[in-house]
Amino acid sequence: MSTIHTSPSTHEQPESSARRRTAAVLVNPAKIDVGDLRAAVADHEHAHGWAPSRWFTTDSADDGRAAAHAAVAADPDVLVVAGGDGTIRVAAEAVAATGTPLGIIAAGTGNLLARNLGLRQDSTADAVRAAFNGADRSIDLGVADLTRPTGQTETRTFLVMAGIGLDAQMAADTDPRLKRRLGWIAYAGPIAKSVIGNRTISFLYRRDEGPFHSMQAHTVIVGNCGTLTAGVLLLPDAQPDDGILDAVAFRPIKRFGWSTVGYALALNRFFTRTRFGQLLHRVIPTPRTLQYTHGRRFELHTPAPEQIQLDGDPFGEITTVTLTVHPGRLRIRS
User: Fold this and answer.
1) What pLDDT is attached to residue 185?
2) Is 9 helix (H, G, I), strand (E, B) or coil?
3) pLDDT, mean of each 10-residue run, the chain (334 residues)
4) Short-list 2, 25, 28, CA closest to 103
5) Which residues of 5-36 are buried (b: 16+ CB within 10 A; e: fewer)?
């Protein structure tokens, strides 16, 4: 269950007796109209007695990490991040250890975290209001320890999903300019190419502290959230605050098996979110093309380098990845 922390209201901290609260705003200028955002933030500051916010702009050269760490170093009462899932992931990576709440102005292509948390996406003013003066909830943080083909290691975080196989190849092969212009339609080419080729990957994997198993799959996704764009429910049991990672392996038999995958994904929400669907699901077997499991730690080894994605962004090739969950590590203000 999530933990709720109530944000202090203005009347509890009168300006005459307490420091005025201050926000740091981390913004990806490629994702949002910065002028509109500044106006909405200024209106809120004036109406609720906040001090002027400090502003930090991401740089594509380092995925915004330098700006995110500078924003955290400013020691704000809330870190407001305006951008897509990638920018939010970078901000979460920087702020998680501090306990400072993260306010989200979702402005990306997929906005998967915002969708899974039920955050406002249709009004900048409403999103700003929630980011500054909403209630806090604690959610889990996913951590990915990556081992490169060179043997070098690095640690990154994820909030939504990590994927190897088709999922990661889509992220690596999709033209970023097309993604900005067309959104998720830009993935059509990479998806078609991968489905037609029907390439599978060999894995050695283990869950938690169990034994290693071998497996072949088209793609493996480990997630902290379950819903994709268009309401597609990929991981039916995933919750962002349950201290558990959910995983699915796509194992279609030849290219025609993808129709079974599509059928299963299309009906996941019906089977798991409606009473009648749950009754039917007891007598209709789960397609073997999708294999589900869950745990707190997943370790995967590949005999050859494979691409990995975190929250929709490509992170290059790995030969080993360990995915763990840190329960309740991140505070979200909404």
Assistant:
1) 38
2) coil
3) 44 53 96 94 94 96 94 97 95 96 91 91 92 95 98 96 82 58 43 56 94 92 89 89 95 62 61 60 65 96 94 92 98 95
4) 25
5) eebeeeeeeeeeeeeebbbbbbbbeebbeeee
CB-based contact 127:105 (threshold 8 Å): yes
3-state secondary structure of 128: helix
Please give the Cα distance from 40 to 53 (Å, whole number). Answer: 12
Mapping DSSP to helix (H, G, I), strand (E, B) and coil, where does residue 205 land? Answer: strand
Provide Rg for the chain, Cα atoms.
21
Which are the contacts of 165, defined by CB distance < 8 A and separation ≥ 6?
Answer: 201, 217, 218, 219, 220, 250, 306
- Separation between Cα atoms, residue 226 and residue 240, nearest integer Å: 9
For 49, left (φ over 0), alpha (ψ -120 to 50), or beta? Answer: left
Sign of the alpha-carbon dihedral angle for 102, 106, 111, 114: positive
Q: Confirm if 95 and 322 have CB atoms less than 8 A apart.
A: no
Helix orientation angle between 257-273 and 275-283, rounded to the nearest 10 degrees: 130
Q: What is the pLDDT of residue 121?
A: 84
